[in-house]
Amino acid sequence: MSLPLSANNSEMPAEQQMAMSYLKAYTNHNYPKLATFYNRDSVFVDVTAGRSYTGRRHIIEFLERAHRGVLEYDFNIEHMFNSGALVVMIGNYHFKGPGEQFGKPGKIIDIAVPGVTTLKLDLLNHRVSKHQDFIDYQTMTDQLAAQ
């Protein structure tokens, strides 16, 4: 995550600070920490893939499967803003990992895919009520074809 390293977190609104803490756990695959952000009503939606998971256990199980074997994973945030408890982050997801997940067995793939992530936060209880991803899968398909 390039934005939090260069930004002074104390100058960010509390919602953005919480979003950055969550995103750090998310991209570092820190599942015990990540689990503290979810409860049984939390929802994780990949809108463009048509996938949705509800509840801490189901979200964590999905993320563990999706990130298995990943060598590098980060979100380079180009722009972030919030409207109250809704935080919007626009940038590129960078992924380096096993090609098996993408039909490229035996290869290590390296892709950067544009995306928008929105987080609906419950600041009082320090929870992510809803995580939504909007990912440019066409760009990912184009990059995979070239590898």
How is this structure best described in words?
- The protein has helices at residues 2-6, 14-27, 31-35, 56-66, 137-145, and strands at residues 43-46, 51-54, 72-83, 86-98, 108-122, 127-135.
- The protein has a 6-stranded mixed sheet.
- The longest helix is centred in the N-terminal third of the chain and has 14 residues, at 14-27.
- Strand 1 (43-46) and strand 2 (51-54) form a beta hairpin.
- The chain is globular.
- With 147 residues, it is α+β, with helices and mostly antiparallel strands.
- It contains 5 helices and 6 strands, in the order αααββαββββα.
Topology, element by element:
Layout lengths: L1 H5 L7 H14 L3 H5 L7 E4 L4 E4 L1 H11 L5 E12 L2 E13 L9 E15 L4 E9 L1 H9 L2
Descriptive tags:
single chain; disordered N terminus; 6 strands; 6-stranded mixed sheet; alpha+beta; 5 helices; 30% helix; globular
Number of discrete helical segments: 5
Instruction: Determine the N-to-C terminus distance.
Output: 24 Å
Percent of residues in helices = 25-40%
Main sheet properties: 6 strands, mixed
Q: Secondary-structure element order, as H and E?
A: HHHEEHEEEEH
Uncertain parts: 1-7
Describe what is shown at a glance.
With 147 residues, the chain is of the alpha+beta class. Helices cover 30% and strands 39% of the residues.
